[in-house]
Design brief:
The chain is of the alpha+beta class. The protein has a domain at 2-50 and 378-408. Helix content is 19%, strand content 42%. Strands 17, 18, 19, 20, 21, 22, 23 and 24 form an eight-stranded antiparallel beta sheet that branches. It has a four-stranded antiparallel beta sheet with strand order 1-2-3-4, with no helix packed on it. Strands 5-6-7-8 form a four-stranded antiparallel beta sheet, with no helix packed on it. Helix 1 runs antiparallel to helix 2 and helix 2 (24-49) runs antiparallel to helix 4 (378-408). The chain is globular.
Amino acid sequence: MSVYVSYITLIDGIVKAMNLTANRLSRNLLLSGIVPLMLGGILLLWALSSGSSTVNIGANVWSPDSNSLVFIWANSLYRLDIKTQILTPISAQSGDYREANWSPVDDQIVFVSEKSSGDILCLLELPNKQTTCPAISVNGDTFFPHWSPDGKRLGFYVGQNYEGSPSEYGYRKLVVTDFSQQTPLQASIGTLDNVSIANDLQWSPDGKQIAFVGFGTSWNIFIIDADGTTLQRFSDGSYDTYPTWSPDGKQIAFYSERDSQQNWSGGIYVQAVGTTSAKRLTSTIDRVLRMQWSPNGQMIAFATYSPEDNFSRIYLLQTDSSEPRLIVDNASIGSFLSWSPDNRFLVAQTTHSLVIADMITDQVAFYYPQRFAGLLPLDMVTKVASVLLVTGVLMLLGLVVISSRSLRNR
């Protein structure tokens, strides 16, 4: 509130200066500059004060019936009815939350709560909104919680958060737990080329195996049995990341830079489980940030990032085609991609919105939980405020030029 008061005080001082300006044109320019500056400043201050209200999703945001999805916004968990667009808060209290994941079989939602003592796993049970936090005790911060297909187990990482080589930033351990029994089993990961858990994890459709990205001599994909026993290298390329199982469990698609031999560009490959030969599906594309096979097996959704323009893009790739279709352009895509179980919707996130793609209507919508006066989304408010501020500054600069000429002519 003090920021608003200071801003209004500043504007009031400028307005008083109008009384010292005799020239009618100068007064009009001053007024034309002050009005957009006031409106733009108020809008921008509102947008900045709302900047912490970011959107965050997990690996599976959908209810089993595909009618609702869960996401985190403004430090709380919300449930969005996909048909009515009704938004309902479901967390009893707010906190620094991330990665909310809906169980594929019931109304249990697991999410990560960031605490000063470390990141912990919490469990929210609907419809009574009962929250257990921590839901399971582990030694270390937790990342990437993923439900098994039968909803009985949970896979997640324990360790440090990092970007880059584990030898430089730390190591993670893969934990698989019977969530109802709270008996974690830390999978053995040090028996093959000193492999360290690096990023992502994907359950096989039958729940017997987990694919993950590991770092040995390079980034590659590994498969481990869900009981923590047999570990095998699946890929052997350069920067092989973001594995996703086909619905029948026979193939894994992934992103690799093995053929491009350059950073930030590569292709999508598919490889049969139990084989060593990968087939390239795409031409050269920007580096992939996330990838997910559709439930019906006909499409692969993936998000890319271009360092040249600092934007992300979402594509759909038919598994029998080599040309991906762009569905979202120039967005700041983060976190996961999540298909609804009925295959109709694909959800991603930007900083302040959900991206919801409808496969039947072929429409893509940006859902903004927060809107100014219930109308304009936050991103648009920021753009409008910028235009108003620039307009006001230009008007005041015009006033300075006219005033200077007036003084020289006296």
